[in-house]
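Quick one:
INPUT:
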């Protein structure tokens, strides 16, 4: 069996793409959480795993894949278990899957996500954030700017990773400028409206072609295009934008897709991972605080001993 290890963070969009693919493929894999909200992706140990300092990354025999596209392509090619997700691009369905993957991949999900966090008034039903993140998002702008400063500090402190940190810093500054600009965010949201019209039409066409009500985006079989759509719908729901993009009244087939997808085992496994995020963060905080707690307990024990004497 192939030895795989996934580095990921449960709420990261691209990690979710890799995770959902692993679950669909019924893959056996080891895992390590990289707490990106604490900047763990920029620690030197992780920069050795991937100089990009992003999640997901997948360790495979003899190498590490550092982009979710490469990861999902590899998994579907190498694992003959679970669902076949990427049909041959010589076939009509393969061409369609390819086309939809490109379309869905072109969405600037980071600008949309942080754009909503920066401008929460754009959310319709409110961001569904685990309470552990609330403090961070209330100060989203300061946190983002502190992130840029941390990258500059790391570039100065670790000469062996300097170029990687500076490249990240350039990307970071570009992204923050877009997220802060409400007009840019509004433009991305409006482009998404157009895309959702196309998705609704495609779902209707597929139903007609297949003559069934339970088909997926491009056919009766679940494919990689559906994986992309699932994580997009989950993200929009998380951002409180489900009422804008897929209410049953406006886009009934997309809404129906979202309801059906919740019954799929792989999606339930993915959402279960998402829910672990608060526990993960608390565990990390306790781990960090452990030396202090042990120190304090030592002092208390010492005082009790001294008084008993
Ligand atoms: N093109 C990459 C994008 C990966 C990416 O941007 N991951 C985000 C989380 S969704 C990340 O690691 N952000 C932390 C950072 O950039 O420092 C992929 O598809 O894997």
């Amino acid at each position: 069996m192939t030895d795989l290890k996934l580095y990921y963070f449960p709420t990261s969009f691209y990690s979710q793409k890799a995770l959902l693919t692993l679950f669909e493929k019924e893959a056996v894999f080891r895992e390590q959480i990289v707490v990106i909200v604490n900047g763990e992706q920029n620690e030197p140990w992780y920069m050795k795993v991937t100089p990009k300092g992003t999640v997901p990354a997948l360790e495979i025999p003899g190498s590490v894949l550092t982009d979710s596209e490469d990861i999902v392509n590899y998994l579907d090619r190498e694992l003959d278990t679970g669902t076949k997700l990427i049909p041959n691009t010589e076939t009509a369905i393969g061409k369609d899957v390819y086309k939809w993957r490109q379309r869905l991949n072109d969405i600037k999900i980071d600008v949309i996500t942080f754009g909503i966090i920066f401008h929460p008034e754009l959310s319709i039903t409110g961001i569904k954030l685990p309470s552990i993140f609330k403090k961070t998002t209330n100060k989203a702008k300061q946190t983002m700017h502190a992130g840029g400063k941390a990258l500059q500090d790391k570039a100065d402190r670790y000469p062996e990773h300097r170029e990687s940190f500076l490249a990240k810093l350039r990307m970071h500054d570009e992204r923050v400028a877009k997220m802060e600009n409400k007009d840019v965010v509004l433009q991305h949201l409006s482009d998404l409206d157009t895309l959702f019209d196309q998705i609704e039409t495609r779902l209707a066409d597929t139903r007609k072609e297949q003559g069934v009500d339970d088909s997926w985006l491009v056919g009766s079989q679940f494919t990689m295009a559906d994986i992309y759509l699932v994580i997009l719908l989950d993200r929009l729901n998380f951002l409180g934008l489900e009422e804008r993009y897929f209410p049953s009244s406006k886009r009934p087939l997309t809404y129906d897709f979202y309801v059906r997808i919740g019954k799929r085992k792989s999606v339930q496994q993915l959402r279960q991972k998402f829910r672990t995020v608060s526990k993960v963060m608390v565990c990390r905080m306790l781990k960090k605080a452990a030396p202090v707690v042990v120190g304090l307990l030592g002092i208390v024990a010492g005082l009790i001993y001294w008084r008993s004497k």
